[in-house]
Every structure is written in C-alpha cells, then in structure tokens.
C-alpha cells in the first residue's frame, strides 16, 4: 500500500478535505498513476453537489488530469513506468464492437459510468483510510497524488508535451473541439453557430476557427462572455434575451437562411431545438453536445428533417481515448490548437476548494491544480 494525500468529498456540497489515503497497487489490466496536474470540470461540481445520479460518498473526484505511470498491473503491455499519460473518464478496450468500429468511440466495457465507485476487475476500491473504502469517480479520481485506473482509460502521450497545459484535453476541451472537427466538420469559409460559450462551447468555436470558418456566431444568455469568446474565433454574438423572436429566426436572418453548421453546448432543451432549426436547409448540420435533463423531449416539425437539415449527437467529441487523444496533443504541440487561453486560473493542491469557488462564481473556464504544492 502507498499512503498519499488525496482530496476527499465526505458528503455532498461540503468543502473537500485533504487526507492521507492508502492507494493499493494496480491489479490485472490496471495502472497506478502519479498525478502531476488536474483541472476542475463542471461535471465534478455537478456530482459533488449530488445533482447527478446516485450520490456516492466518501469519494475522490477529479477526471481531467495529466500524470506519469508509476506501476502497472498484470497483463498491461502498452504502458510502462515513466510514460506520460492523460487518464480519461471513458475508455477504449480495443476489443468490443464499438472499439473495432471506425464510427464509434462508445466502448462497451469502459464507457463512462457515473454510478460505479469501484474497479471493474474485482468490484472493489483501490482507495481506503484505515480499511474504510473510498469510492472512485468515473474511473479516474484525479484529485489524488496517486490513482489507479483501468489501462483502457489511459492515453499515452508525447513526453515533451507540458502536462500543465494538455491535462485540459482529457475531458471538456476535447469534447467541444471534436464535436466541431469530427462531427460537424465545417468547410473552409463556412458559417457556424455555437450555443453556450463555456469551456466546451469555446472549444467548439476553437475547432471552427481551426477549420477556417468565415463566421462563428456565439449564442449565450450572458453577454459578458462575448469578449472572452473573441479569443476563440467568435466573430458575432447573439443573446436570445435581446430579441422578441426565436433565436433560430434571428440567425436565419443574419445568414441568409441559416448557418452551415451549429454546435449546441448547453444541455438546455430549447437551445438544442434552436441549434437544429437554425441550420440551413439542404446541407445544414447541427451537433448536440450538452447533456439534457432526464425528462426532456426534443420536438421539431418533421418538415425540418425532410428539408435536409441533419441532427447529430456526440460523446467526447467522437475521440477514441487511446487512439486519438495523442494526436490531439500533437495539434497543440505544432501550434495548430491553442490551450493556454482556456486556463484562467491555477492553484496549488492545498487550495483546491478555491477552484470550486471560481467555477461556482462562473468566472473560470479551467482552473489547473498543481499536485506538488
């Protein structure tokens, strides 16, 4: 057993507490990672507040991170101690029908499971305090100096990549970026609407900028976000509250019938419908990224479909974690993708609760937490 510091959520919504935690060695097909940098994503806050599914406490949150392999369990052949890696909340077993399909990244074995707080191998946790198990979170639990992760949820990356920057690629930034580049696929000179200008929406805008879109229209209820959004290529801004008609009609008027592509990053059902209805007939494609409430229903007139407006969805930007994330890191390394502008704050591990405060106040895109401090 290793004894290390981890940041525990003992109960919903209460400040996290740094405790000495025993981290067991990795078992078959598992690796133990030394986390060097982790960042806070809204999903951590959502489940910490216990707004998600089944509340499970005590728990170690965290799922956006960068680190180094410390040890490997039996059967692990493609990772070794010293490798630089990004742990990911979803996985790629490389064996199931989804992993073998070029069209899917929704691994049957390792797809995200927010209810499971234990390892797949034996149904037990690798974290404990004096024998009391501490639950895992989405298979990663990166708010810890050391964590144990299934090998299929670990992307091996270029060791020259700065982990304090590329750690943000292990969740939200890749989700938005891939929604645009892999699913919407806007052509050079096209028009793109982005609904929701948080970190994921701005990553979607960054994707549109990288693809050479001529107009990127940001849609958000908070007009203060527009200035920040300009850094990510957003050229125009629409606040639905400023108009007496549905925002899809406003966008259609601005663009001569609709945008070529739209990406929805809010999870609000009305924004989803607007994002679909604002694309141009004949070729328009809308991509849904935001996670809806469980009782939501998507309603639109079937003529929109018959008029050749396409609706798509995406999970983690259609990236396969092990196969594709290393290539996204290379986009950063060759300066095609800019990550610095997503990182608005940095705090030492001892001040992790500040990261939650920044996120709850709404003035943080990504707060990177340095684990060695």
UniProtKB/TrEMBL annotation:
Gene Ontology terms describing biological process: formaldehyde catabolic process
Xref: SUPFAM superfamilies: GroES-like, NAD(P)-binding Rossmann-fold domains
Residue ranges constituting the Alcohol dehydrogenase-like N-terminal domain according to the UniProt record: 29-157
Compartments where located: Cytoplasm
Domain Alcohol dehydrogenase-like C-terminal stretches: 199-329
The UniProt record lists the keyword Transferase: no
Keyword terms of this UniProt record: Cytoplasm, Metal-binding, NAD, Oxidoreductase, Zinc
Co-factor requirement: Zn(2+)
Top-level EC class: oxidoreductase
Domain of life: Eukaryota
Gene Ontology MF term list: alcohol dehydrogenase (NAD+) activity; S-(hydroxymethyl)glutathione dehydrogenase [NAD(P)+] activity; zinc ion binding
Database matches in InterPro entries: ADH-like_C (IPR013149), ADH-like_N (IPR013154), ADH_Zn_CS (IPR002328), GroES-like_sf (IPR011032), NAD(P)-bd_dom_sf (IPR036291)
Gene Ontology cellular component annotations, sorted alphabetically: cytosol
EC number: 1.1.1.1
CDD domains assigned: alcohol_DH_plants
PANTHER family, A to Z: ALCOHOL DEHYDROGENASE, ALCOHOL DEHYDROGENASE 1
Subunit organization: Homodimer.
Family per similarity comment: Belongs to the zinc-containing alcohol dehydrogenase family.
Entry protein name: alcohol dehydrogenase
Taxonomic lineage from the root: Eukaryota, Viridiplantae, Streptophyta, Embryophyta, Tracheophyta
Gene designation per UniProt: LOC110429312
């Amino acid at each position: 057993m290793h004894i290390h510091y981890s940041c525990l959520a003992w109960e919903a919504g209460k400040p996290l507490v740094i405790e000495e935690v025993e981290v067991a060695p990795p078992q078959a097909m598992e690796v133990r990672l030394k986390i060097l940098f982790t960042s806070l994503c809204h999903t951590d806050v959502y489940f910490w507040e216990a707004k998600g599914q089944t509340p499970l406490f005590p728990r170690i949150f965290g799922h956006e991170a960068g680190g180094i392999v410390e040890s490997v369990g039996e059967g692990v052949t493609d990772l070794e101690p010293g490798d630089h890696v990004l742990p990911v909340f979803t996985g790629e077993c490389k064996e199931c029908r989804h992993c073998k399909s070029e069209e899917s990244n929704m691994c049957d074995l390792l797809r995200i499971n927010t209810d499971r707080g234990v390892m797949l191998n034996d149904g037990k946790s690798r974290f404990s305090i004096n024998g009391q198990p501490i639950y895992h979170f989405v298979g990663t639990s990166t708010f810890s100096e050391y964590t144990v992760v299934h090998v299929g949820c670990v992307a091996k990356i270029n060791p020259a990549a700065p982990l304090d920057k590329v750690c943000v690629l292990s969740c939200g930034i890749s989700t938005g970026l891939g929604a645009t580049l892999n699913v919407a696929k806007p052509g050079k000179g096209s028009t793109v609407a982005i609904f929701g200008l948080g970190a994921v929406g701005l990553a979607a805008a960054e994707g549109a900028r990288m693809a050479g879109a001529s107009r990127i229209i940001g849609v958000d209820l908070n007009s203060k976000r527009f200035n920040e959004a300009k850094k990510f290529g957003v050229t125009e801004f629409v606040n639905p509250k400023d108009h007496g008609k549905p925002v899809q009609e406003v966008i259609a008027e601005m663009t001569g019938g609709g945008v070529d592509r739209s990406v929805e990053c809010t999870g609000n059902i009305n924004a989803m419908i607007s994002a679909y209805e604002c694309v141009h007939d004949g070729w328009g494609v809308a991509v849904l990224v935001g996670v809806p409430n469980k009782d939501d229903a998507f309603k639109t007139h079937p003529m929109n479909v018959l008029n050749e407006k396409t609706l798509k969805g995406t999970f983690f930007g259609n990236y396969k974690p092990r196969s594709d994330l290393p290539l996204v890191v290379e986009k950063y390394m060759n300066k095609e993708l800019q990550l610095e502008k997503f990182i608005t704050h940095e705090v030492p591990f001892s001040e992790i609760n500040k990261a939650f405060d920044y996120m709850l106040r709404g003035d943080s895109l990504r707060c990177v937490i340095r684990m060695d401090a």
